[in-house]
Design a protein that fits this description.
Layout (H helix, E strand, L loop, with lengths): L1 H26 L6 E6 L8 E6 L6 E4 L5 E2 L4 E6 L3 H6 L5 E6 L5 E6 L1 H10 L8
Antiparallel strand pairs: 1-2, 1-7, 2-3, 3-4, 5-6, 6-7
């Protein structure tokens, strides 16, 4: 009987802590940008979490840790689904957008399908020569 009372008190305390944490998170203002995973340069390195921010007309990738990476003149060149191997590191339901920017650098950005349209609006498509 005592075990049930102790278990009930522990469950009530855990519920109170979870609810308190949830309320503190919802009280914060939303973070600007599109949540994503990025690989810089494209095809090399590992996937790192961050956000793509396109305020002021110039897009930039802000990793969770580290300095923002500006994408001057960034243009999306391709959209594809992740391979099986990439799906292990990122969400297999995401879409990968390959981008090239003015100084010749490249970056791959993985976003969820609902965020794809917003990302493509932030990074215009590359013009194809006819």
């Amino acid at each position: 009987m005592i075990e049930f009372v102790v278990f009930a008190l522990v469950a009530a305390g855990a519920g109170w802590l979870v609810r308190r944490k949830h309320r503190s998170r919802t009280a914060l203002a939303p973070v600007p940008g599109i949540p994503c995973m990025a690989r810089h340069p494209a095809g090399a390195g590992r996937w790192r979490p961050g956000r793509i921010d396109a305020e002021g007309g110039a897009a930039r990738w802000t990793p969770s840790r580290g300095e923002p990476v500006p994408l001057p003149g960034g243009r999306s060149t391709a959209v594809r689904v992740p391979s099986v191997r990439e799906g292990i590191a990122i969400n297999p339901g995401s879409r990968i957008v390959t981008c090239a920017y003015a100084d010749g650098g490249t970056i791959e950005v993985a976003v969820m399908p609902l965020d794809l349209r917003e990302l493509l609006a932030a990074l215009p498509q590359e013009e194809r020569a006819a």
